[in-house]
Amino acid sequence: MTGVTKMKWYAKTYIGFIMAFLYLPILVLIVYSFNESKSRSYFTGFTLNWYKQLFTNDLIINSLMNTLVVALISSVVATIIGTAAAIGIMNMNKWLRAAVMNFTYLPIINPEIITGVSMMLLFGAFQTLFAWLGENTGVNIPFQFGYVTLVLAHITFNIPYVILNVMPKLRQMDKSIYEAALDLGCNEWQAFTKVVVPDIMPGITAGFLTSITMSLDDFIISYFVSGPTSQTLPITIFSMTRRKVSPEINALSTIIFVVVLAVLILVNINDARKEKLLRKKAGGGSRA
């Protein structure tokens, strides 16, 4: 065995260990989602009973719906605000842009426990303020921990991810294209929507998908700002671990993993088809 062959074998073995380390726990979870008993140590038989019970478990279904609704609303709002903020930052002078970007990095680098506690204190202060206004002015503004605080918190920690995804696309964009659109008769809004937005759309899409992912995955911040009727799925699963995790969670995790994997495969297939078409067009043009 030559040195090059040994290096290839070591590289393949190393990659194999890494992939097994990452995906073996998920494989075990999938297998035990079909386990007939609640045991997490022995596979006693195949069953689909946990999947049937999953769709009749109101607690899990409601928590899942809360998670999806909060993730979708917060991601859309964060994408709009973050994209506008990124465009504004790009139009700042060099030193001010550097200072603002440093502050943009802080929520990402900052431990989530600090963000969660600080938001809980902020919303608690708002709650006290609105209660005081209601007592002294007679104008009652209801403000309780629930969907509103949860969505606001998710929007807050998602905005930096959108900014950091959109900024590279803005740097790559040729500013003369926007100016050319203005010279050709577009007003500022038309030039922005028809020229700038399509050019930076990959960054906007990446920011939106990152926001959804972070929102679906978040537990710590949601734990501090959610109310009793607005618990997300991670919080519900955490509350179950105090007793014993139901195999229904294994079934739900399996469904989520399969859906994400299917979406990833479809996106890759679509990208491969587009690349193939571009190669065909390029090949046809070169022959012509």
Description:
The protein has a domain at about 60-250: MetI-like fold, CATH 1.10.3720.10. About 80% of the residues lie in helices and about 0% in strands. It contains 11 helices and no strands. The protein has helices at about 5-30, 50-55, 60-90, 95-110, 110-135, 145-170, 175-185, 190-215, 220-225, 235-240, 245-285. The chain starts with a helix and ends with a helix. The model has no long low-confidence stretch (mean pLDDT about 85).
The secondary structure category is mainly alpha
Could you give the count of β-strands?
0
What is the molecular shape?
A: globular
* CATH structural architecture of the domain at 58-249: Orthogonal Bundle
Largest sheet: none
In helices, the fraction of residues equals over 70%
CATH fold-level name of the domain at 58-249: MetI-like fold
CATH class placement of the domain at 58-249: Mainly Alpha
Helix and strand sequence: HHHHHHHHHHH
Low-confidence blocks of residues: none
For the terminal residues, how far apart are their CA atoms?
48 Å
Mean pLDDT: 84
Count of DSSP helices? 11
Radius of gyration: 25 Å
Estimate what percentage of residues fall within beta strands: under 5%
CATH superfamily of the domain at 58-249: MetI-like
Descriptive keywords:
MetI-like fold, globular, 0% strand, mainly alpha
Ordered list of secondary-structure elements with their pairings:
Layout: H1 3-32, H2 49-54, H3 58-90, H4 94-109, H5 112-137, H6 147-172, H7 175-183, H8 188-217, H9 220-225, H10 233-241, H11 247-287
